[in-house]
Specification:
Keywords: Membrane, Transmembrane, Transmembrane helix. InterPro entries: MFS_trans_sf (IPR036259). By secondary structure, the chain is an all-alpha fold. The chain is extended and about 60 Å long. The chain has two domains: 106 residues, no CATH class; 54 residues, no CATH class. Helix 2 runs antiparallel to helix 3.
Length: 160
């Protein structure tokens, strides 16, 4: 059934939607921000170290789960679609039930989300700075792009 769908549907679900919320990277940034805000200074380093270790261990567990699913679930069945949906629902349920917002109240100022201010703040990085900073920023963007492309190609080769 799913293999008869047009390729743009696959593009939307595999690239566009994860690209909008930045996927796993934004999740881990949110976790680190939450722990940093809701931890004492003495425990913050320990908790952030635990998060980094958890990321590595969970990546290994996730790779193992993918291998088990590939071995046990028929490729043409619904398992490839139902298993990730169920795991995401379980994660959302656990997060909803057990993660409490203990942050301080703040005045919501969404001015920085407006495109005019976003573009202005982005271009201010490049203005009135030394040439070496612009070169360093360009090299960082280039290295990040190469790194992401390398990881994407590696992950795509696992899918094939």
């Amino acid at each position: 059934m799913f293999w008869y769908w047009p390729s743009y549907i696959d593009l939307i679900f595999r690239s566009v939607i994860p690209g909008l919320y930045v996927g796993r990277n934004m999740f881990w940034i949110g976790v680190i921000s939450y722990v940093s805000e809701n931890s004492s200074i003495k425990l913050r380093t320990l908790k952030l170290g635990t998060i980094v270790a958890t990321y590595t261990i969970s990546s290994l567990i996730g790779a193992g789960l993918v291998a088990l699913i590939k071995m046990t679930v028929n490729y043409y069945g619904y398992g490839y679609f139902i298993v990730p949906i169920l795991l995401n629902l379980i994660a959302a349920f656990v997060g909803y039930c057990h993660v409490k917002d203990t942050s301080d109240l703040y005045k919501k100022n969404y001015e920085w989300l407006r495109p005019k201010y976003l573009l202005k703040s982005f271009t201010s990085i490049l203005k009135n700075k030394s040439k070496i900073r612009r070169v360093v920023l360009a090299i960082l963007v280039l290295c990040q792009s190469i790194f992401v492309a390398r990881i994407g190609c590696k992950l795509y080769s696992y899918i094939l």
